[in-house]
Design brief:
With 870 residues, this protein is α/β, with parallel strands linked by helices. The chain has a domain of 220 residues: Pectate Lyase C-like. 23% of the residues lie in helices and 34% in strands. The protein has a 29-stranded mixed β-sheet that branches. A 7-stranded mixed barrel has the order 1-2-3-4-5-8-7. A 5-stranded mixed β-sheet has the order 6-12-11-9-10. Helix 1 runs antiparallel to helix 5. It is globular and about 85 Å long.
Amino acid sequence: MIIAKKKLKTSKFALLAITALMILVVFSFFTIDRKNLNFWLQNVNEKLMAFDPGFSSPRNLIDTGEDIIRASDNSLKIKSIFINIPKIIFHKFNDNSNDLNHIDITIKFKNLQKILKERKLAIKNGFLNNSSYVNATIKFDQKKYEAEIRLKGNISDHWLSKKRMSLRVRLKNGESILGYNTFSIQKPRARQYPYEQAFQESLISSGNLAAKYNFGNVRFNGENWGVMIIEEEVSKEFLEKQGKKDSIVFKFSDDRKRLKNTSSYHSDYRMSDERLFATLVREKKYLSDIDNRKFYTYILEKRLEKKHPEIYSESHHIRSFIASLFWNNQHTLFNSNSKYYFNPYTLELEPITADQLNFSLYTDQLDEVLEDISLSEVYKQVFSLPMEDSKINRYLASSIELFSDIEKNLNQNHNYFPLDAYKKDVVLKSNINLINKNKNLLYQWLDNVNLKQKALSEQREKTFDSQDGIFPQHLHVRHYDDGQIMLFNLLPQPLKINTISFSGNFIRNRNFIIPGYKKGNYEPYVINTNISGIQDNQILVESTYKNNVRKTVAYPTLVSDGIINPLMNSNFKEFDFIKQLDSNSYEIESGDWVINKPIVISGSLNILPGANLKFSKDAYLIVKGSLTAEGNIESRITFKALADSWKGIYVLNSKDKSSLNHVTISNISALEDNLLNLSGGLTFYQSDIDLRDVKLIDIKAEDAINIVESKFSINSLHIENAYSDGLDSDFSSGTIINSFFNDIGGDAVDFSGSEVLIDNAIIEGVKDKAISAGEASSIKIRDSFFDNVAIGIVSKDGSNVEVLNTKITNYYLHAIMSFYKKGFYSMPSIEIRSCQIDPGNAFVRQSGTNMIIDGAEEPEIYLNVDLLYK
């Protein structure tokens, strides 16, 4: 979103100040005490950048992307500033103010002092830890927003200078600016502009999750800070805008060992161990949901196992790795820079990458480069499974495509920083060619990567000295809701446990010794207590090692009931009517088949005409591949319940298109089984689908059909007697023609982030909306008929709807509506042409939205959307 350009006249005094400041920089570089040079240069540099001198950083004045060493030379940067003084003055004299949004931040004096106090402590310690939020006010686009702000960034580059410090912002009351509710403000060079942005945008285009950015002119307590990067932080809105369902996001390792940066900590000290330590983004909010707590338990327990590659999405991680390999920089893959989204459809973790550095040219042979790569535990696990060369080759080819237009992406914001050197892609293209020509070396390395990583780790190890210094933490503690407490000694030496207390009361105060951990082993010392239920932050363990006492708070409570991943079972051999055709395909013959437990197929499944499948209440069908059920007019294929209901069908991650024809499905409820909780009775996730002459009758799920991140073609779909929604399309695209929806308890058809054509649809008896378009959907409706509905058609939250030759009768609220619920989307629009609509209170256009009826703009009204939904 861009607001009207505001030209700020630059005074002669400001120009003289810029010139004097740059001359002072050059002079002082050769005279100042080198011990304080970095601190001084940062302050002077940020004062200069606050004037918006026409470049993003001194480095980018000389960096063309071709020579990383030259671009890092401080003397060349300063020389370049001096040389460019005429251009900078010309830039300011011509009033080349950018057209970026203006963000004014105001913090009261006492709150500012709190931030500055934490900054001072961070400078003293060399890193920032546990900064606090303070209240602030933000003015944006003539509107004021209440917010919370804190200092941001682990390392000094973010806050060494008081001017242009990095800040984390959280808007109150669910409001958004630039489409962001929670975001960070930082100078461009703190996010390696433009390399980081170009890298992450390329990954996003492939379906990976990554940081997203914007730019703005920032003013802080009346002081101009110049052009800053606005980075969206991970949140429900962040996930939604990248096409993902809301779920928990992990960060592995708490990073304290790295930040303290002291040689006194031996490599065998498990402080910040990435197998043990994991935190959640907005932990308190997400763990209030028991399903999320189960996800949390599942991941924490799995990561203690020696081999656990099944919890990671192979494709997303390999794309991230290969992209970093092209870049010749794995910085974005480090635990400190990556988060991990738990996908509730696949029950796998997907990386959310951020903070990639600039690319650089390979100067060594590829095999030597690969030998020196150090992988995190996540990527060791991903590469622990054997992969055929042909699969890796497909990943390699698709990753090359990501950077086909990288030079354009590197320079896309050049108009904000016209004095920045143009970035070329020759280095990156050279790296890609080198890897592609030597891909056999990559295949060999991947085959042996874990052996090489183990050898690399062993080379770095020394014998643990029991006389090593004081350790800041002795234990990692986990509590389960059945009262069990697990103590993980972070030292390979015995440790004395003094007390265990709960809510301030001692429950065990007899000293006892727990052994040091054994190398490669993550077995805990287990204590059974009567502290049951959820007891987050209530359990404290005090320990002693060599007269040094430490206190450790237990992690949030884990779930003790057996956690099962239904997707990991493949049990076709338990059903004699399922025939295996080859290693990856199966078939169900014609006949009547009773199914008393879930079926999970890893591969494609073909169901022949005349097959009648009867499911018990807890039974369901999962196909991790394509599903083909092609009946005919004489021999339909049926899926139904033995008694009251059954748990439906789930098709996921299929490379081949699924097809259902002449099929009847009845009495389904949602597929809910331990970790897997779907909203649909019939669900397709990343699996393209053709539905023809398919009937769904008597559905007790939230969605009769849920299509997610897939392409679809629907002809003659019949949904009748649905407890809630009929068809729900999430971030998908396709067509719906000649279809019928009747007796629907929610929305007949609900769209989120989808692009769909609806032709000749009949929708009758709907308690909510016939068509609901949200989350920036693009929907075309023609030649359809909606009768006896609460609301005919709604366009909301950035959606665009076009309706032609459609009849809406007997609505009992409104026929057409446009409104917005979520402020981080643009305004929705709807255009109605040549439609027949019953008279009454037919059209409701919320202020700010767009509605055109046969070429005429409908009048706006005030609409309380919260009240509407109540």
